[in-house]
């Protein structure tokens, strides 16, 4: 069963490993769990629905609560404290395009707002209903999950867009194929959500971002259906697929999507490599990216993330042994860990290993075999469960992500980290901050920064702390000309910073585009642009 106020399935826990509590206390301070509201108490507060009756819509309080929020930090604060300002007035679970059309027509005729819900894993407020006088209908896509067509010759597969990561992969794997799109939210997020947020999977270096994988599809809009032919390429004017990508539920419901698929790889392995310090690791990463070697994943952690990852891995005696061994050969506390993924056919991957390890060694890197990589792979979709445990111990955790050019990485990273470290100084609160570069391009990379801080005694205080952190880090991103999001999208939380990337004309063009398919502004208003 899915957790109503945290991440994932209630049967899965990620207990705090031995030593982790001491580590956090030293870095951030001792914390105690805040008071939490019970499910029964929250359900008792769900207000009456404002929707007119419709046979496909349930107004059941539990469903309305389960669809009231996503996974952003404000979402967690709201769910854990019970201070949930708004609920959808009803939830529908269409199972085909006819039902989707019916629901859109119903909402349009009553002028109800519509929020499309994929897996609800948004971390920036995409699925949160906003206060107002208009009733809100949430359309949950979880019953639209089938593989509709597999074109093995063209290597394209068409799915209903509510399919989750694991079910999509299992349907493809049966035929010997993979999409290769593995965001960390893979367990719950959906194909439609990936397209609507321009998501990026952990092995994007081999498989590409979702915009590289999305070939076409079908959209039901308030103005009527929109078909996007799955062409390999097109010079027939602006590519409408790129307007749908990142549309965050503002243009219509993606009901079907055709994606580009690959054969399951003959070989795949993940390796752990230590560098003496950040600079040499980054230089090696850049070189690998710029000569375009066939690797699938490159994730370079800074020294703080390297240490934190090892402490939170739970393998205390092994970590102590590795620490002593690494120190004895000169890899001090400034060491940085690279997780390297190599995926492909045998001849390609043999070549990649040879070239990559030679670059790594030239930069003083120490390959340590596959143990660290295997451990990472085993827990790649499990680590989000740690957020539940940390929260229960009184710690809140969130992330910031951007992408900048290689030339701007060091200055941007330094300022983002410094903004986060000092954001709560006036409250005498310390913040644990660490980063990695995980999606690399010929011209730059994404910077992914995690920040961990103590929750306040009251939920408002936690929210204020988060807001101070998020605002200062976002301003640092914008000041360096970075994008406000490399992969999570805009939603509510990043909307104030979008103009610095798109400019006034760009924002006006987006408004006009949305209005062309949704003149009454019923689809997910207030998200992406106000
Ligand atoms: C623990 C965790 C790890 C994460 N890791 C990553 C990561 O590695 N990479 C990454 O890119 N993101 C990551 N995310 C963010 C999130 O998972 C992605 O944004 C994901 O693409 C959202 O998919 P979803 O199906 O959950 O969409 P939802 O959260 O349900 O919705 C997101 C937006 O998409 C719209 N939408 C959803 N389905 C449709 C549809 N069928 N048609 C039209 N619009 C639709 C919604 O209206 C909403 O605006 C992570 C989130 C969490 C909580």
Structure description:
The strands form four sheets. The protein has a seven-stranded antiparallel sheet with strand order 15-12-14-13-17-18-16, with helices on both faces. The chain has a five-stranded antiparallel sheet with strand order 5-6-10-8-9. It has a four-stranded mixed sheet with strand order 1-2-4-3, with helices on one face. It is of the alpha+beta class and 530 residues long. It has helices at 20-27, 39-44, 61-66, 73-81, 97-110, 165-173, 191-197, 204-207, 210-213, 241-244, 278-290, 303-312, 316-328, 346-362, 371-378, 385-392, 409-422, 459-479, 499-517; strands at residues 57-58, 90-92, 113-117, 136-140, 147-151, 156-160, 177-178, 214-221, 224-228, 253-260, 262-263, 267-275, 297-301, 336-344, 366-367, 395-405, 432-440, 444-454. Residues 7, 70-71, 115-123, 126-127, 141, 161, 183-185, 189-190, 192-194, 196-197, 199-200, 248-249, 253-254, 384, 487-489, 524, 527 line the site of flavin-adenine dinucleotide. Flavin-adenine dinucleotide binds next to strand 3, helix 7 and strand 10.
What's the short version?
By secondary structure, the protein is an alpha+beta fold. It is built from 19 helices and 18 strands.
Spans of 5+ residues with little confidence (pLDDT < 50)? none
Arrangement of strands in the largest sheet: 15-12-14-13-17-18-16
The geometry reads as globular
Largest sheet features: 7 strands, antiparallel
Number of β-strand runs: 18
Level of helix content? 25-40%
Count of alpha and pi helical runs: 19
The molecules bound to the chains, other than polymers, are: flavin-adenine dinucleotide
Terminal Cα span: 35 Å
Q: Rg from C-alpha positions?
A: 23 Å
């Amino acid at each position: 069963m899915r957790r109503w106020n945290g991440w994932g399935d209630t049967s899965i826990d990620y207990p705090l490993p031995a030593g982790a509590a001491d580590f956090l206390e030293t870095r951030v301070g001792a914390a105690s769990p805040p008071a939490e509201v019970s499910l029964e108490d929250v359900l008792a507060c769900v207000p009456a629905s404002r929707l007119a009756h419709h046979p496909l819509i349930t107004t059941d309080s539990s469903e309305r609560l389960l669809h009231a929020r996503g996974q952003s930090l404000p979402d967690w604060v709201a769910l854990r404290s019970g201070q949930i300002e708004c609920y959808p007035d009803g939830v529908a679970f269409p199972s085909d395009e006819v039902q989707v059309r019916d629901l859109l027509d119903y909402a349009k005729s009553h002028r109800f707002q519509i929020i499309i819900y994929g897996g609800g894993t948004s971390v920036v407020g995409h699925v949160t209903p906003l206060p107002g006088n208009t009733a809100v209908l949430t359309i949950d896509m979880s019953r639209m999950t089938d593989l509709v067509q597999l074109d093995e010759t063209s290597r394209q597969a068409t799915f209903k867009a509510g399919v989750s990561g694991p079910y999509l992969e299992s349907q493809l794997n049966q035929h010997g194929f993979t999409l290769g799109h593995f965001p960390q939210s893979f367990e719950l997020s959906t194909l439609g959500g990936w397209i609507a947020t321009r998501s990026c999977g952990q092995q994007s270096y081999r498989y590409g971002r979702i915009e590289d994988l999305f070939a076409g599809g079908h959209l039901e809009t308030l103005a009527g259906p929109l078909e996007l032919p799955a062409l390999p390429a097109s010079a027939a004017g602006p590519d409408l697929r790129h307007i749908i990508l990142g549309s965050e539920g503002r243009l219509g419901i993606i009901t079907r999507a055709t994606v580009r698929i690959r054969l399951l790889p003959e070989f795949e392995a993940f390796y752990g490599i230590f560098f003496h310090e950040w600079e040499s690791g980054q230089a090696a990463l850049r070189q690998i990216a710029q000569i375009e070697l066939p690797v699938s994943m490159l994730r370079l952690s800074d020294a703080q993330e390297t240490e934190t990852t090892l402490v939170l891995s739970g393998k205390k005696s092994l970590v102590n042994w590795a620490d002593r061994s690494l120190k004895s050969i000169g890899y001090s506390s400034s060491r940085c860990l690279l997780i390297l993924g190599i995926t492909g056919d045998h001849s390609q991957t043999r070549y990649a290993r040879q070239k990559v390890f030679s670059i790594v060694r030239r930069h003083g890197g120490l390959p340590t075999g596959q143990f660290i990589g295997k451990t990472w792979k085993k827990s790649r979709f499990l680590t989000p469960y740690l957020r539940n445990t940390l929260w229960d111990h009184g710690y809140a955790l969130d992330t910031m992500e951007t992408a900048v050019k290689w030339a701007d990485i060091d200055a941007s990273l330094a300022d983002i980290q410094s903004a986060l470290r000092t954001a709560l100084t006036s409250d005498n609160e310390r913040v644990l901050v660490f980063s990695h570069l995980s999606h690399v391009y010929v011209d730059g990379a994404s910077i992914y920064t995690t920040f961990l801080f103590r929750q306040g005694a009251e939920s408002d205080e936690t929210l204020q702390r988060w807001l101070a952190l998020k605002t200062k880090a976002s301003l640092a991103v914008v000041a360096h000309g970075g994008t406000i999001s490399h992969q999570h999208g805009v939603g509510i939380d990043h909307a104030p910073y979008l103009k610095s990337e798109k400019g006034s004309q760009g924002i006006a063009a987006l408004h006009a585009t949305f209005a062309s398919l949704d003149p009454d502004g019923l689809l997910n208003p207030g998200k992406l642009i106000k």
